[in-house]
Amino acid sequence: MLFFKSLDHEEEFYDANSDSMHHWKLTDLQFSKFTIIAGLNSTGKTRTCNVIRNTVKKIIEPMKTLMLGKTHLTFSISENESYKLTISIEEDIDRKRSIKKEELYDVGGTGALFNRDNLLFDRRVIYDAISKQHTNYSPPDDTLTFHVRRDKVSYPYIEEIINQMRKFHFLDSEEPRSVAAIYGGKLPLQLPIEILPSLTPFWFGQIAEDKKLGILNDINSLDFPITNIFVKEIIFGGQRIPMLYFEEKGVKGTYDFLQVSSGMRKIVFLIMFLHLIEEGSCVLIDNVGDGLDYNRSINILPIIEKIAEDKQIIISTNNEILLNQTNIENWNILFREGDVVKAYNYENSKEQLMKFANTGLSNYEYFQDKYFLK
Fold it and tell me: What single string gives the DSSP state of each residue in 99-164?
């Protein structure tokens, strides 16, 4: 199971449009099995989500343009395999980007699996599983080790990590984007919503009837009276492609995915997606509460937790109703001072959380009144 544990990130770059240096730092982000990332507008929720997504993207996809920043990620891919990963990509005076540091550390195991430090020591070593020794290697300055040492025999840990990272999926409630699971991660992490209706049937049309029934039951529990979902071919761009169609109680005829209201489409797609992706996945959902009415805001999280029992879920929101429905110990509250964003959570704010538990106030008041700073 892919499981994120902690993340720190810092980036500094020159912006030619404003002719100035930009700096942004994120510290102390901690993950649990069901993680909430909360923050007022302009504190960095979406940017934090993008850092998480881009860190995964660096690992599973060779970058045409290196993404700047220093990232420290701890994660596990099984009960016995935990890692610390450091990636530092910088820009020189000529605005040429290169990898300055890259280290993968096996916690409780082999130790450093590979280490390239082009800044201080000009050292590059990698662990070979055949010889069980570290050997020198010389990767290009613009390519991560993950993409130059794809050898299942000598470096099996690289292949295992890439395969597990493909179980990461990013969903934005404004625009559901990640469908990487549909073809085993062969698609990019981002796709426009217009493509989704034509892709969804490829996996929906192949699942067992009992799973389809489970999807319908969860959709109905949110007061969407859909009685049937089926796949029908349509002509699009001169080609025949499958499209999802719906039947609804009290409504004559059928309608396709694009004719569904935006609020219903977001929730229906989310429920279907969580049902259909593989076990052990990690799903990041940005702005999950946007556009939901009161009753659906109350009921959506228990449904997500039920469907995703075998997955790690990371949700960003500042929705009062949703925050009052979640365990405050799973929160990361983002608080920004200047260009530094700190995540306040159970790991670094346990005392404040314990004191707040005795106040009788709602969870949202802990967030709104900045109780975590007291």
Answer: EEEEEEEEETTTEEEEEEETTTT-EEEEEETTTTEEEE----TTS-GGGT---TTT-HHHHHHHHH
